[in-house]
Amino acid sequence: MAFSASLSSPLHFRNPNPIFSPKPTKPATRPATLKPLLALPPSVAADVDSATIAAIGGGSVAALAAALSLADPERRRKLQAEEVGGGDKEVVKDYFNKSGFERWKKIYGETDDVNTVQRDIRLGHSKTVENVMKMLTDEGPLGGVTVCDAGCGTGCLAIPLANEGALVTATDISAAMVAEAEKQARGQLDLGKEGVVLPKFEVGDLESLEGKYDTVVCLDVLIHYPQSKADGMIAHLASLAENRLLLSFAPKTLYYDILKRIGEFFPGPSKATRAYLHSEADVERALNKVGWRIRKRGLTTTQFYFSRLVEAVPI
Length: 315
Fold this sequence. Notes:
By secondary structure, the chain is of the alpha/beta class. It has 11 helices and 8 strands. It has one domain (73-314): Rossmann fold (3-Layer(aba) Sandwich). Strands 1, 2, 3, 4, 5, 6, 7 and 8 form an 8-stranded mixed sheet that branches. Helix 7 links the parallel strand 2 and strand 3 (167-172). The radius of gyration is 20 Å and the shape is globular.
C-alpha cells in the first residue's frame, strides 16, 4: 500500500506542491457535489467510494489540525489490536487475510468492480511497478538474477520479474495474498518459455526473511512500520541484498502528515491498518548507517496515490 484516499471539502487548502494542486473552480451559486481535493492514507482509501467523506469547517490547515486532535484513532487501533491478540503486525496479518485481502485483490486486479478512488490507486501502484522494472532493466537483462519480492501482495511485481527471467522469491505476511499471487503467476506466465521459472512463493513477515539475493525489492510495505522499527527493517533487507535494494514508501511531510490525520479522523466503514509515513531523509539515513547509498530516486503520484521510490547500492 501507499499514501492514498479522498476528502471532499468546501475549503481550498494551499498545496505546497503544485503537482497536486487542484484546478481553480468557479464559485457555486447552489450546493454542488465537490470533487476530491486532497489525498489521504491507504488504510482509508480502499474503504471509501467516490461520494465520500464529509465537509469540515474552519479557515486554515492549523485550525483543521486542532480539530483533528479531538479524534481518537489510537483507541480504535488499540481495540483492533486486542481483537486479534497482538500489535501492528497481527493487525496487518489479520486484515490482509480477511476483508483487506478481498479489497486489495480487486484494486490490484483487473475487475471493473472498483470505485473511482480504488481505480486511481490501481493506476498509481501499477506505475510504481513499471518504474521498478525500468530501474532494474536499465542495468541489464534480468535473466538468472535472484530477486526477493518482500511483501509481494498478489504478485504484481513478482510476475513481470519472472517473465523477464529473474529467479524470484516472493513472500507476504498474508497466506491469502500468497495463494492469490501463485494462482495469478500460474495463469499469466508462459512456463514453457526458456528462462521463465515460477517464483517461489512463501508466507512470512519481513523479519523472518533469510538468504542472499542479488536484488531485494520491498514496495509499499514500510507504511506498516513506525520509523523506530523501519530502521531495523531497512537494515535487515539490506543484509539480504548483494547489489541492489529498492524501497517504496509513503513520503512524510507536514502537509501529508496532516492529511494522514484527516484520514484517521474519518475512518472507513471497514477496519484497516495503521499507516506510517517516512521522510526520505530518515530512510536515507537508515541506509547510510548500514553502508548503503541511494543511487536513483523516483516519485509516483496520481490523484490518490503518492509513493517515493529509491534504489540503493552498497557504498
